[in-house]
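Example 3.2
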Amino acid sequence: MSQKLVDRSPDLKRLRDEGYDVQVVGKGTHLRVGSIPFVNAERQIKTGYLVSTLEFEQNNVTKPQEHTAWFSGGTPCDKDGTPLKIIINSNRVTPVEGLEVDVQFSTKPRDGKGYPDYYVKMTSYLKIILHQAQAIDPSVRADIFPVIPADGEVSPFKFYDTSSSRSGITALATKLAVKVAIVGMGGTGAYVFDQVAKTHAVEIHIYDDDVFSQHTAFRCPGAVSIEDLKPGMKKVEYYDAVYSKFRNGIVPHPYRIGLENVHELNAMQFVFLCLDSGELKDAIMQSLEEAAIPFIDVGMGVHEKQGALIGILRATTSTPAKRDHVRGKNRVSFAPAAGPNDYSRNIQVADLNAFNAILAVMKWKKLFGFYHDLKHEHHTTYVIETNRLSSEDQSEDQ
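Structure, written as tokens:
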């Protein structure tokens, strides 16, 4: 099935968006809408599919010229088991190779002008069939929202991105089809990965040499089972195993980025730095700057005061358009992880990790044109106790 054809045909797309099992078959010559409950002669509810020819004009689906339709899967009947009156032919035929149908239907719109589009045509027949099934079992439905494979096209996902298509933002979503690296898969890095994995990023390289421990389960996306907690398993191995069920292009690196391998990041188009220690940040950032690669560094400073937590979340962006603020304004700490900061003692809070990650991912999406960026801020902070979100260090690239 060509989902691109469905995408550019408003009536076919509407069928799919409303949850119907829509397929274009026969090398694009026929439309099939499946998983339609119907009543058979024994008054049992079965499922079959409607079939219609497709009309084209300049490679686009146009108004149906033929008002009839076929049905495959049996002979649809009314609630009493009598074949539907709209059946005009009960001979089993093969309208196109690989597609066998049982009966042919015929019913015309009352205005005599024919069906205006395939949405109206297919739902008109569908409602007649479904109405009889629902008279026996009101719970049956045809809008089942089936899983749609990736259609054999090059895609970062295992199945078709109906979310972007349904929202009409496929063109925007593909702006994020870039190679991304996430250095550090701790609390914040894991949530960055979770969000980037749901975009059209073509490759996501994840770097971390740490193991996925029991405490990690309390600050990462999703739910971890006891069986998932395998001794010695690296964080990147865990996330690769989980998210590879959903998408392609995940490249796990079970080691940390250091002076000897920082050059690996030069192949990326964007880098997220999610390290709780600043010891290697300076060298990594210098390498990225020399390679003209944009990046975002995230950080959290959290501590306890009077029996509750206070602190600041930070997302600092560096692009070829603006880099001087990182060191010039001391926006990023290059000190090793030590001191009274509760975050450095591994006391992390999942909601803060997630929010810190969201700040970074939203800025990444701005940089690549998914969101409008009016301020061109390169440094964002959020103060927990005052609920204050601040944006600073605007670039001149406006």
